[in-house]
């Protein structure tokens, strides 16, 4: 099995039970070994009291991209801690895109960076997540 196939099958297995990402309106655009891209169209129910995308939804978008990237090796990985810096607001009607790239995977510990961009390509947020692989796989692999 190729690393690309492993990442795709891991993502398919995760997506079936990721009701939170689905409920928020996220879309998994692509996945590969140590990387993932997700998108979210900013709708009225994503807006805060200032009429811009609520930071919690931007965090959720970045966190979900992070999750699919660090789980792409068919080993269950969970977050240890995450940070986010907001750079510009998400606007009603635009599509936000989160691109996650695994920067390091040493033993069971990973570090993944996620860049969230707006429809015009501007940076909306920078996210860094630390992951830890735990017991389990997303699907059974033949030896």
How would you describe this protein?
By secondary structure, the protein is an alpha+beta fold. Helix content is 24%, strand content 39%. A 6-stranded antiparallel sheet has the order 1-2-4-5-6-3.
Per DSSP, what share of the residues sits in E-state strands of 2 or more residues? 35-45%
Number of domains: 1
- Strand and helix order: HHEEHEEEE
The biggest beta sheet is recorded as:
6 strands, antiparallel
Query: Quick one: overall form?
Result: elongated
- Overall mean confidence score, pLDDT: 97
Give the distance, in angstroms, between the N- and C-terminal Cα atoms. Answer: 10 Å
Determine the CATH topology: Thiol Ester Dehydrase, Chain A
CATH class division: Alpha Beta
Proper CATH architecture: Roll
Please tell me how large the radius of gyration is. 15 Å
Q: Which residues form runs of ≥5 with pLDDT under 50?
A: none
Number of helices: 3
Biggest β-sheet: strands ordered side by side in the sheet: 1-2-4-5-6-3
SS content category: alpha+beta
The CATH fourth-level homologous superfamily: Hotdog Thioesterase
Helix content: 10-25%
Number of strands: 6
